[in-house]
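Lab notebook: predicted structure, single chain.

Context: the supervisor wants predicted structures on file for every construct in the current expression panel, including those that have not yet been purified. This is the next one on the list. No modifications to the sequence; it matches the entry in the shared construct table.
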Amino acid sequence: MAKFRQQKIDEEMKRELSVILSELKDPRLEGVMLSVVLVEVTRDLRFAKAHISIWGEPEKAQAAMQGLNSAASYVRREIGARLNLRYTPQ
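Prediction complete. Output recorded below exactly as produced.
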């Protein structure tokens, strides 16, 4: 795959992920600010690593991380619905 295409997919995933995270209704995400810093998708588009910055009190940040981990399957489904890719990265 061309490097340019992979960069475009990374940026599109980053954009959609930030929109999805802002729409989450988990109470553990209250009082913290989330920012998607970087998204890296593997060459075969099977896996993605998202670097997310969480600002807030340490206790709330830990709870927010647990909330994000529990919402991982929902986020993956939403990414699959919004992006036109052959595989939805895990």
